[in-house]
Give the backbone structure.
Amino acid sequence: MDTSPSGLLRILTPKIPLIVKTALWHTLWLSPTSSKWDLRTEMTVRIIRSLLNNPTPTPLAKQQRWSLKDPGIKGKMWISKVTLAQPEEEDIRDVLVEAVDSLDGGTRIYTVPPLVPVEAEWTGYRAHVRHDRPRLDLPEAQHYERLMTEVTSPVTILYFHGGAHFMMDPASHRIPLSNLAHLTNGRCLSVRYRLAPQNPFPSALLDAFQAYLSLMFPPPGSFHEPVSERNIVFAGDSAGGNIALALLQLILQINRSSTRKCLNFHGRSIDLPLPTPAGVAGISPWADLTRCMPSTTSNAQWDYLPAPLTHEATSRFPHDEIWPTDPPRGDVYCDLTMLCHPLVSPLAARDWTGSCPMWLSYGEEMLVDEGKSIASLAAQQGVTVIWEQFEAMPHCFSMILTQLDAGRRCFKDFADFCSTVAGSTNYKEGAQLETKGTWFAAKTCMETDVDVRSLAVCDQEEVEERMRSTTKARMQGKEGEGKIMPKL
């Protein structure tokens, strides 16, 4: 992403009238959010909202290119760029396809992707340097060695960046991940998974699966030693949280349904059932690609996300080299027939039995009902779930409103969870967590306990009916939920 002064100036100059109006309304207490937000928060949310809700859509390829601009590497971070070789065997692709097909017996349309090398970035914290210190001119292997000299914990976070499945990159998330490495004394492996629309479902999920196995069973030429699953946490924000939850659900489904005894991977035989990680952590995970839940409209005033996609909205995307796809499809990430699949929308997953502990954090945002349903169902099925919701906060607030107490608290709790579940080298020494839900009040962060098992706003049967009806409306070209979005 272009965060240079000139790049930010190009973005903000057309927004000067909005900035002036927002400042005036907030100062005079005319804004409905003035009592919950400070001026900086209101300004930030309204500018992002105006960019994402542009009445003249920006071509997808242009959005993607803009989001992939590398800001460079400097300051308090170690970055080691790696490529995880794909296995010659096709077992992991085949077992993924089997899991996709076994989870849903309906007519579904998707293309089986090829196995490819997966690029990633090892990210660590670089202490005792200035924020503008240039990166050392060293081979990538030596960058990894330097990184590991400052790692004092076995915590290894397998991270998937957000960006609606078609934007962003590990480069855009270097600062928050170096901070996460600092707070955990560990390291992060940030995956450059294949982006849609060029690479639709299940390409990104296959890359994530390959990355997880590569941590535990390093391919030839890897910098790292084998990592125990007891020290690995799946994590991600927004669409990356979707991938983290889908990867966990994929492993659970393979263990439930596969008749295989092992998987061949780079000449090794990996026994089934597959090990689950130490935990999964999500910052505002996008768990429902149909966006059918009530909070999509009821919480719009606190959020900057655009209205749910409709047939009309996708048809208005300007044509460019990546959209529309060939053959055409109705969603950027997948064919419309796949929207209700549990590995596309984890909200549709009926069974989380056997899952590792979960940490889910949301604001009072448009996606929160999705998280509530997953947290509630998983807790009812015996999974340890740590739930946190912050009043009046927007989507992924801890990554964009870092100056707020709420943002700092959220990220600290994220790191604490990772350290608790994955910070021990001895399984018997690992701390035991209990299911807990917390509501944090705006501005003060005053805590109120909530019952995780009763968070869901509707039962699973109603969730699935909502998802089916919204998907049907998309397929028939009706506007559905997007039609009643409030004007902000």
In short: The chain has a mean pLDDT of 92.
